[in-house]
Amino acid sequence: MIKLSELSFIASLLAGIATFISPCVLPLIPAYISFITGASIEELKNGKGSTKHTLLSALFFVFGFSLIFILLGASATYLGALLGENRDLLRVIGGVAVILFGLHLAGALRIKFLYQERRLLLPIKRIRLGYLSPFLIGLAFALGWTPCVGPILSSILILASAQETMHEGIMLLGIYSFGLGVPFLITALAINQALGLFTQIKRFYRVIEIASGVILIIVGILLITNRFQMIIGHLVSIFL
Description:
The protein is mainly alpha-helical.
């Protein structure tokens, strides 16, 4: 039987991928790649940029947002441990929050504060600090709060708060960052093919939002009823 922690890791990986293809992130990916590499999108499409430079810039960008997400995961687990005596109450409150996030994504409920974006103001011209620049931009990206990233990331942080050790919380957000970072690296190295794929994905934005919302609602219900491990474990055993 797959353990609850393993199921949480699978959910975290899928959440990272869902964040990447969300309407709030996917359209901005080419612009971020252009900004961190210092090359225009046309130059990247024509292969004029250095592959090594593009890959290293993308890696440092991923390292930047991964650091923030991992720190958030460690903090969430630490907070959950402090409230260990009230773990059941925390699980129920977290489940309710995940359901609300799911309803928000599905369009059944609009939570106003999730529409507020917090972004670090970046200079029009990229400051030349070597590969420190894309790292800092990655930090800024992680600190931004968007309608799509907020519900998904918050739900993973709630799962992190339910982990028994800080190591598990760090792993959970590390895997989330992996799910978000790998598609970004692939896009940076294959911008032409990625742009064509992005155009196709855009047609299904609403479907993606609804599907993500429904999944979050189901996860929230399972957390409230304390049946997350049992039901998901049975489903996994059927297909594996």
